[in-house]
Design a protein that fits this description.
The protein is of the alpha/beta class. It has nine helices and five strands; from the N terminus they run βαβααααββαααβα.
Length: 206
């Protein structure tokens, strides 16, 4: 990714339902950092005609597309969580495109402030799974206990506990991620407690 001169690239990662997006947003708010999300970039790349959309169409044909040529996201999500080989193939296809787009966005931002030290907070759910951990100067893992994560996923996606558990099993265990990171924020409890931890991490990062 971008050479880390005169910049600070911080990654936020963690398991499904841990609250990564909320922590990333709050860290940006209190630090003035620019926020980026790998999931948001992926969604943009899968819009009709975009590079990710074209890649999926080329490799998998019309299997995951609706009549209006938009991606059938619920169908794709279902197969993604059920079929390991498909998940690996899709990740191999999309991860380089997402990584490149994030790099381009950072470079564009830096071009506007060539002499300034710009802070970036990049939310990357599959940071360790995709082996992107060396792209960042610091990594923050957002952790939450399994019961809390499952409850959040069920509420967010309107799915059963069994479906939520199956989804979480497709990722590296949260505890394993926490053991690899420089900083860990426990988001299992009250949001006010999490905010205090984010404030502390901000002081350690900058």
């Amino acid at each position: 990714m971008v050479q880390q001169t005169q910049r600070s690239l911080v990654a936020i990662t963690g398991g499904m339902g841990s609250g990564k997006s909320s922590v990333a947003a709050y860290l940006c708010e209190i630090s003035g950092a620019r926020g980026l999300s790998a999931d948001s970039v992926c969604r943009q790349l899968l819009e009709p005609g975009a590079s990710g959309w074209l890649a999926v169409r080329k490799v998998f044909g019309g299997r995951f597309f609706l009549a209006d040529q938009r991606l059938d996201r619920p169908k794709l999500r279902k197969v993604l969580f059920e079929d390991y080989a498909f998940r690996q193939a899709l990740n191999t296809l999309l991860h380089p495109l997402i990584r490149n787009e994030i790099t381009c966005l950072i470079e564009e931002e830096m071009a506007h402030f060539p002499q300034a030290q710009v802070r970036f907070v990049v939310e990357v759910p599959l940071l360790y799974e995709a082996h992107w951990d060396h792209d960042f100067s610091q990594i923050v893992v957002v952790y939450a206990d399994k019961k809390t994560c499952l409850s959040r996923i069920m509420l967010r996606d309107q799915i059963s506990e069994a479906e939520a558990e199956k989804a979480t099993e497709t990722q590296m265990p949260s505890l394993a991620k926490a053991l690899l990171a420089q900083h860990v924020i426990d988001n299992s409890g009250a949001w006010s407690d999490t905010c205090l931890q984010v404030l502390h991490v901000r002081q350690l990062l900058w």
